[in-house]
Amino acid sequence: MSANEIIAELPRLNRSELEAVDAKLHELLAPVDHMEQQATPNWGRKLAKFAGVVEGLPTDFAVNHDHYLHGAPKR
User: Fold this and answer.
1) Position 12 in a domain
2) Of 10, 43, 48, 53, which is the most exposed, with the fewest CB atoms less than 10 Å away?
3) Is residue 49 part of a domain?
């Protein structure tokens, strides 16, 4: 059954059935929400410890990193 078919059936459900569907959706989405919320802060914290620690890079490295890493034209 497709998502559109499921959505089309929802108006036919009574309140308790809709609440059961709502509970199941929250149950299924909870791990995804939890992973998304943790992914960003963890990456940020892990990368933050490297901010500003590399010495000897060109002053325009942030803007022209593709040039220095891959030979692309400078911006």
Assistant:
1) yes
2) 53
3) yes
pTM greater than 0.70 (yes/no): no
Radius of gyration for the alpha carbons in the chain, expressed in angstroms and rounded? 24
Residue 75 placed within a domain: no
Task: Provide the residue range defining the domain that includes 21.
Answer: 3-70
Q: Look at residue 40 and tell me whether its pLDDT is greater than 60.
A: no
Whether residue 48 lies inside any domain: the answer is: yes
Report the domain count for the chain. Answer: 1
Q: What single-letter DSSP state applies at residue 1?
A: -
> 1-28: per-residue pLDDT in tens?
899 999 999 999 999 999 999 999 988 8
Tokens at residue 46, please?
A: 């892990």
Which tokens is 55 given? 């010495």
- The total of other beta-carbon atoms located within 10 Å of residue 21's CB is 14
